[in-house]
Amino acid sequence: MKKLLAVLLVLAAVLFVFAACSKKAEAGVEQARSTDVTQGMDRKIVMGYSQIGAESEWRTACTNSVQAAAKEWNIDLRFSDAQQQQQNQLQAIRTFIQQKVDIIAFTPVVETGWEAILKECLDAGIPTICVDRSIEGSDRISTNPNDTSDPDNWFTAFIGSDMEQEGNRVAKWMMANVPALKPDKTVYNIAELQGTVGSSAMTGRFKGFRDTLGIPAATALGTSSDGKYKIILSQTGDFTRAQGKQVMEAFLKSNPDDIDVLFAHNDDMAIGAIQAIQEAGKVPAKDIIIIGVDAVKGAFEAMVAGTMNASIECNPLLGPQVMETAVKILNGQPVEKWVVSNESDYDQTNAAAAFPSRQY
Ligand code: AHR
Prior knowledge:
Layout: H1 2-34, E1 46-51, H2 57-72, E2 76-81, H3 86-98, E3 103-106, H4 115-123, E4 128-131, E5 157-160, H5 163-181, E6 188-194, H6 200-213, E7 222-223, E8 229-236, H7 241-254, E9 261-264, H8 267-279, E10 289-294, H9 297-305, E11 310-313, H10 319-330, E12 338-340, E13 345-347, H11 351-354
Parallel strand pairs: 1-2, 1-3, 3-4, 4-5, 5-12, 6-8, 6-9, 9-10, 10-11
Antiparallel strand pairs: 7-8, 11-13
Helix pairs in contact: 2-10, 5-6, 7-8
The structure holds alpha-L-arabinofuranose.
């Protein structure tokens, strides 16, 4: 009995030492992550974050990434959901200024209307990070940091995708694949579901798609320079599944047999449209070729099931880059004006292999 007791005591002591060591290791990581800026401060970095809302699978993944990264970096995150209203974003950012947060990150729901609030942040000495979507007039390069009329000088850094390039990638995928998928045709009619009107994700994808096809960027409908691709329908579905379905239903009513390709500015709208196509008695991914943007899980499921053709990735896992950039800015270290995301294209040829390792 005594021997058993002794063994148990030794075991408990070993476990205690092991737990203490791993706690220390964790604290070490935290200290490294919280970096110099918090040294000598008796509090954490405070970041105000104005998110657009929860309109899509992509947005949920982005929010989760930001919240998890804030924990990981030991940053006190004040998170505000604007429910798709710019007014709510302006209000939230003003509140962050009053609260004297250390740094503000925000995703502008639309491109216009940011000058005044960003100048208020500058006047208050609070740096800002633009996440995912950008603002009007910004090319995310600042040639003269003293030029207050250049929108690129109203924020400190931008972290996100090249939306125009995503539009280019959709058009390139379409031109490379649609002729083989629809061999009975030589001219292809395209229906387009646009994202939230006036958002950089919408304007960028809209323009990039047309640029690659040789269609003037300012026109909604038009024919490619080689005469093979015609945008015959183009309307917003506001990046939501419900509106994607609704608008596709209307497209199919007005043009029951004419649509060869659907370009949806995001996967949620593509998934909504697939339901509308099925309900109209057509076969998605065969009668109508479906290309989305985002590469979220729902799109992978559809590609593996054979109801969607392709999804052009837009990476929502921006949280770690946001936190790292914030800490660098607050430490006075140089940061890139534009931290661009790494992205790939997926279709029915590589979706099944990539699916198991997808994080969103
Ligand atoms: O700004 C990124 C876009 O916004 C994503 O493509 C879309 O799904 C989201 O709602």
